[in-house]
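We now fix the convention by which a protein and its fold are recorded. The integers have meaning only within a learned vocabulary of local backbone shapes. A complete example follows; check for yourself that the lines match position by position.
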Amino acid sequence: MNHDFSGRVAIVTGAGDGIGRAAALDFLSAGARVLCLDVNGAEATAAAFGDRAVAHTMDVRDARGWGDLVAAIIADWGAIDILVNNAGIAIPGDTVVDIDEAGWDRIMDVNVKGVWLGMKHVLPVMLRQGHGKICNVASTAAHIGLRDAAAYCASKGAVLALTRQAGVQYAPANIQITSVSPGTTMTGLQRDVTDAQRAAFLPLTPIGRFAQPKEVAEVILFLCSAGSSFMCGADVSVDGGMVAL
């Protein structure tokens, strides 16, 4: 599907790698101006697109940073039409018993608080504009119990619940908030997944392979396009059939 995002302004978090990078590049290729945000790698994503792409190094847990960033985008580009909350982390050995409090808090802060902070600071802009699209990246972990991923599953379940609530809350304001739930995808996050976990996931994926980041990014672009105008609070699984089993 071809999309035209000419004149649109998007923020993509986690844009330095994986799904975030693929989504940022696709938005740029479709004509958007994109703020590529990540703790590492955002510069490489933005490099090929001149002044339509700006790299910003920031931790999504930084509330003050979010406020400053939104103000700067409005000053420079005048609008924020799209927010993709993609940044997320996983930690090895993530069971209820084995994960420590610091690890639990880190996962919840990045994966949930980071999504909330992005929405909290961008939504007032969208409300003033009278339109907007927000796509949050959840996971199959929001739908099924994955072994060795206790805090991760809890965090992605929270993202899904927040998407539903905010989708209902802001739909009357012409702001569509949705989420996408990828299955196992060949991203940098796989560095934090054990070989045993990866081997266990493949038989649970009826399509017989793992996703490439661009396959998830294309669904994100649809959810941020005019084609999703009657969708709010919805989640789209891009998981090779894993949740359907």
Notes: The chain is about 40% helix and 15% strand. The chain has a mean pLDDT of 95. The CA atoms of residues 171 and 237 lie 21 Å apart.
